[in-house]
Amino acid sequence: MSSELPRVTVFSLGGTIASTSAGDEALGVVPQLDARDLVSAVPKLRDIATFETVGFRQTSSGDLTLIDLAELAREIDRRFDDGVVGVIVTQGTDTIEEVSFALELLVAGSQPVVVTGAMRDATKPGGDGPANLVAAACVAVSPQSSGLGTVVVLNDQIHAARFVRKTNTSSPSTFESPTAGPIGWIVENRVRIALRTSSLKGLLEPSLDFVPDVALFEFALGDDARLLRYVDTAQYAGIVIEGLGGGHVPSRAVPELTRLASMMPVVLASRTGSGDVLASTYGFEGSEIDLLSRGLISAGFLDGRKARIFLSYLLASGNDVDAVRTAFADINDALTGA
Questions:
Q1: What rounded mean pLDDT belongs to the chain?
Q2: pLDDT above 50 for 2
């Protein structure tokens, strides 16, 4: 019977879902289990698909790099070319929102890429890794998932990679999509898709061997932005600014942002994590109208973390400031179907 089941590849990157005690519980858990261990520990998966397992990385998710993700995207596309119906990526939850968005941009195939993990490791009562892995497998093989691109599946919810955020340090319900809400859910192993996102394919080239550094800076009350003076001397190729509210900064920071925008791409996002950067409402010094007139580039609906991922890969592909500006406009137009 197993030969009749759809084929799925599972790539493991480490994280809580792969973590267990090294012997002394007081020293905490560390990533030790690979994709084969994870799949073999959940017998229910045998009823859903046949699995190829790949131990791609074994680390905490904060140690993954943008080069790692470009390489992973190439490996995923090779599996799609070989006929697998879907791919599951298991990793640490700390950077799932960034990893999933990078894969959304880089994977060329239309088959589903499902990113999952766990908030409670296998040594804890109620460890959620096995349930999340079963839910991810259901999404990976579902015909409804075709064309969705990369999604994040945890806690029986399906989130679009472009919207999802981790919102709590430890709760199993930590993942939310504040701008749009989850696009679907899983019930009794049935996949329900309520919303479909537009494709972001073609915005980036996945064959990347070098990714320049891009800084991420969040403004706060009374911030004088003195750290921004060192962005160019620290050899950053660009910077994403998380402004206040709809995309605002203290007026004292405007001269430095103007200087940086004359040297490199400076992308303006909002620190709120939800909603679009404004374009034409406020006109005071440091407002969105003022900053955009000085050459800053609107991130639109992208939060700062995802804008940084997008800008990094755009610069890795050789795009200049004008091309970056066009690409950010295009990704926002793709959301609305414009």
A1: 94
A2: no
In this predicted structure, the answer to whether residue 244 has a pLDDT above a threshold of 80 is: yes
Residue pair 295/263 in contact by the 8 Å Cβ criterion: no
pLDDT value at residue 3: 58
What is the average per-residue pLDDT within 17-37?
Answer: 86
State the pLDDT at residue 1: 40
d(CA 162, CA 152): 10
Give residue 137's pLDDT.
98
Could you give the CA distance from residue 25 to residue 31 in angstroms, rounded to a whole number? 14
Q: 153 near 116, Cβ under 8 Å?
A: yes
Instruction: Dig out the tokens for 241 from the structure.
Output: 């600014």
> So what's the pLDDT on residue 338?
46
Distance of alpha carbon 319 from alpha carbon 265, whole angstroms: 10
